[in-house]
Structures are given as structure tokens and as C-alpha cells.
Here is the input.
Amino acid sequence: MKEEILVSGRMNDLIDPQLNIWHWEIPLYLFLGGMAAGILCIAAVYYLRGRENDYKTAVRITPFLAPILLVIGLLALFADLRHKLFFWQLYTNIRLQSPMSWGAWTLMVITPVSFIWSALHIKDIFPRWDWKFEWLNEVESFFIKHKKILAWVMLVYGIILGIYTGILLSAFNARPLWNTSILGPLFLASGLSAGAAATLLISKDKAERKQFARVDLVLIGIELFLIIHMFMGFLASTQVQIDAVNMFLGGPFTMSFWIFVVILGMIIPALLEFLELGRFYIPVIVPAILVIFGSMMLRFIIVYAGQVSRWLY
Amino acid sequence: MRYAMAVDTRKCVGCSDCVVACQTENNVPIGFCRDWVVEVMDGTYPQLEIEIRSERCNHCINAPCVRCCPTGASHFAEGGIVLVDRNKCIGCGACIASCPYDARYPHPAGYVDKCTFCLHRIKEGLKPACAAVCPTKCIYFGDLDDPNSDVSVVLKKRKSKTLIPAAGTKPQLYFLI
Here is the structure.
């Protein structure tokens, strides 16, 4: 049998024997950013459609999670940087070809917007809240007057945030597993699904919970379709991409991906939500937590597996 | 101007002198390297063939690292040489993940480091350290736009290949076969 043995003298830390440059910080941020994007998009859509009173939790309460998730995500991103004191260079440069640059500028918009949106609804959580200073009251009434514009900004930048977390990875043609444009929509769908699950978790209103179980069900369906679509695309592509997808079809990531992401993160919660829509009583915490967990595992597995996949030469 | 390098895989003996010369010239931290030697053995015993390559950054024309860099720290310098500006690099690792040749490494000081084709030596009219020190003179360096440069002459005479042309990076490190 014809064989090939490759011996390399290179042994750079974090590069060899296989790339390990990104650890838990990046997938954690991709998950938190995606979930925050999902929460904000859902809030903006229902607000703009005038359904604020039907879905109070989704529009007014769940968005309080978004700034918290974004700040934790930003701290994780900062922890990942190796030349930390130069981080401000992100904001003195605009690089249109770099998804990471897009992401940095998107976060610069969506993070303050998420804080403002939460501040506008703070009286829902603390009824006796008082801004103390007159000018803060004026700022609040300014944003209440322009809430529609704020919601549109939140929707557009929420979608960009949700998609870019996938495009960030798909821009790397050096890692065949990441190099598919499906990752953008897949991460957006997964983020929206986690956002819907957050409302499912928090809401005490039965009708609202039913609605979000339905929304989540549709999103899980879209996710499953995109995953199958992605795998089919890989299998019909070049050898390196066939090798990449085989990591999930019998290779080292098979168990973790199918068990944690697909079965626990999608199929079981979809089944439970389906039963809940029927006559059965399901403790809503179970499918919601499972969806959020699956959404996180998807990021972790894709980021780690992507670093293993490579071109051979 | 278009700097390029050609390595003769039939003359290279894999002594790693280029590696040590680079580490010394460029003060590469212990345990890291900007260039390295790869030996590929293939065939069926006893018909075996070995190819030895001295590899480094390919200074691609369509460099994914330059495209992905969020701050513009990775950039094209004169002659198409891909450089990292240490005072702009935030150490995010995007360029490292984007390189199909894994030619970059995170410097312990935080920024990302890689082969510079010894631009500081080229400016003084010298060859890159690896090419200057090679005992079998198997590394050719020069300007592809100059038909009389070492690299243009040898690439005209000999058959050559680049690494992973399918990745679309248009590498400028040639291997004579």
C-alpha cells in the first residue's frame, strides 16, 4: 500500500500538533452574544408589531438579560486577547473585510442599545424606581419618544450580531469545517432559539409560554434543517471538507455533537414543547434549559472541532 | 516589486541550519520557530522517495491573515511581504486561525509573530538569514518582477510547486521539484 509519512520540525506552542489558539472564551462569547442577539431581536419584533401587551415578558423583562450576557461575553473576549493593552486598536480601525472588525463595531452599538432598552423598562422590575436626577428623566423621555427607532436599531444590529458570530468562523478557509456560509444562519437560528427559551423560562403567562414554545419549535426545525443542509454540502465538497464532516459522522466529535447538540439540545426539547402544546403538563424549565445548553454546546463543539480540521499537504 | 522565495527540495538535506539562523537573526523566543523543515516520505518499500522542504510564511498574494485582521496589524509591506505591526496587534488569534499553513505563532509577549523574509536585511542589500546561511545553497530569494533575480532565473529553469494552491491564497514560496 502506498503510504506517506510527514515529519515536521515545527513545534510551536498552541499551533502544533494541532491548532489550539482559541479556548473556552471564544465559544462562550459566541453563545452569549448569540443568545443576547436572539433576545433583543424577539423583543424588537414583538414591540414593532404592537404585541407588547400580549408578550410582556419577551418585550419588557427578558431583555434585562441581554446587557448582562453581553458584558460577560465582552469580558470573555477581552480575556482571550493576548496583547490586551492594545485592544483599543479595534476602535481606531474599520476593516470591512474582517468579520471581527464588524463584530467589534456592532457590539459598540448593540451593547448601549441593550442597556437603554433595559433602562426604559426598569420600572417593571422595580416599581418604585426613581432616576433621582432630572436630566436622567429627560433622557428617558427622549428615548420613550423615539422607542420605535430604537427598536429598529435593536432589530437590525441584533440580526448582524447573531449572524456575524457564524460568519466570523466561516471566513477562515484554512479550517474546512468552518468554511461554510451556513454557519451564519445556523448560529442566528440557534441564538434566536436560545432567546425564545429564555422567555419560556421567565414568563409566568400561560398564553405567552405557549407562543414561545411554538416559536422555539419552529426555530429548532430550522436549525435541524440547516445542520443537515450543512453536512450534505460538506459531503458533496472537496476531500478536506469530507474529512471535516466525518469528525461528526464516526469521528472524534460524533458522540458529543449528536448527544449534546442534536438529541439533548434539539430533539428532546422539541418533543417536550410539542407535548406541552398538547394536553400534557411539562415543567417548562426542562426544555428551556436544554435548548440553552444545546445552543452553548453547538458553539463549543464547532469552535473546537474547527481547529482540528485542516488542509493536508 | 514582488518578493518571492524558492526552495530546492532536491538539494535540501534537512540540516535545519535555516531554522537556527532565523531564530538567531530574529531573536525568536526559545521553543518557537518562524521557519521549519518538513520531510515527506512516500511510496512503497523499498521504492521510497523523500522530499525535504524548508517551510515558512508563504507571503500570499491573497493572504487570509491580512483579510481577517480586525485592526490592520497584519498588512502588506513593500514587495508584497506580509508583516505584523506589533503596536497594532491585539493578539486575538484571527490570523493564526486563518492561515492554512499555520505559519504564525503567538509570541510570549502577546503579539503575533511570523517570518518577515528578513525585510531588515533585504533593505541593506542582504539575503534573508535562512537563504544566506544555507550550506547547500538551496534557498533562492529575489524579486519576481526582475527577470534576472536568482528566484526568477531558477523558476524559469526548473519545475516548481506551491503548497495547497487549492486554498486560493496564491503563495509566493515555491518548491523546486
The domain at 3-176 of chain B is CATH 3.30.70.20 (Alpha-Beta Plaits). The first helix of chain B runs from residue 17 to 25.
